[in-house]
Design brief:
This protein is of the alpha/beta class and 258 residues long. It is built from 4 helices and 27 strands.
Length: 258
């Protein structure tokens, strides 16, 4: 199940029932979890840890050095969870000393052809990253997010859970949870109602999210006034989730198109 032309460093740890295709390279201090598949011409860089049942397709480079002009060869790491699909020619960089030295990808993500995740990215679970998406350094991507093909996410941005970003978008500020964003200069166009319904949200839950969205984007309030108004809503996990996101936002919010 490991092709004879594959090059595997003696310090690499390979789990049970792992497949490694022709001409792939597994570098030092890396780990590949059980039942994972590594295609041909793949590079798994040093200090890269893959969990179980991952599929890494032809030509992907997973765990490369940071693409940062300040990088000076310091140790960096990439940790990827379980059940991820990484398609052809995807590149994912290790962490840098400008972060905590770690890039992290969670579980059950689907990352399509030619996508790039830069150094110190923190990605959660159940995300879909479509073809040619380019994600800058230190970006935080929560859970159940779809980023449309050809989109670009500026470094240091955060994207909240259950958001949907349309194809060809430029994201240069933070996108709040549950929202729908689109455009060459991204704007919010409401909530991701189709995505919420597909993920089993009830009508009452969607209405609660609409109220939060209206406070943030459809009423003439400052951000601090919006946060206070959301605080005054009845308790819900959606209220708490949104407030937590707003309190850690550092780049300002993508706003609604007027």
């Amino acid at each position: 199940m490991i092709h004879h032309s594959a090059i595997i460093h003696p310090s690499a740890v390979i789990g049970n029932n792992v497949e490694i295709g022709p001409y792939s390279i597994i570098e030092e201090n890396s780990k590949i979890g059980s039942a994972s598949k590594v295609g041909s011409h793949v590079i798994i860089g040093s200090n890269t840890i893959l969990g179980k049942n991952n599929c890494i397709s032809h030509g992907a480079i997973i765990g490369s050095d940071p693409q940062d002009k300040g990088y000076r060869g310091e140790e960096g790491y990439l940790i990827i969870g379980d059940n991820n699909t990484v398609r052809e020619y995807v590149t994912i960089c290790k962490g840098s000393s400008k972060g905590d030295h770690f890039t992290r990808v969670g579980n059950n993500n689907f990352i399509m052809n030619y996508a790039h995740l830069a150094h110190d990215v923190m990605m959660g679970d159940h995300n879909v990253i479509v073809n040619k998406v380019q994600i800058g350094g230190h970006v935080r991507i929560d859970d159940y997010i779809t980023i449309g093909g050809g989109s670009v996410v500026h470094q240091l941005c955060s994207i909240g859970s259950f958001a949907m970003i349309g194809a060809g978008s430029k994201v240069s500020q933070d996108i709040v949870p549950y929202s729908l964003a689109d455009g060459p200069r991204s704007y919010i166009y409401g909530i991701n109602i189709v995505g919420l319904k597909r993920n089993g949200f009830s009508n009452d839950e969607i209405n609660t999210i609409k109220k939060i969205n209206a406070i943030l984007f459809r009423q003439k309030r400052s951000l601090s006034q919006s946060i206070e108004a959301i605080h005054n809503l009845p308790y819900s996990e959606f209220k708490e989730h949104t407030l937590n996101f707003l309190n850690r936002s550092t780049r300002g919010l993508v706003r609604m198109k007027r």
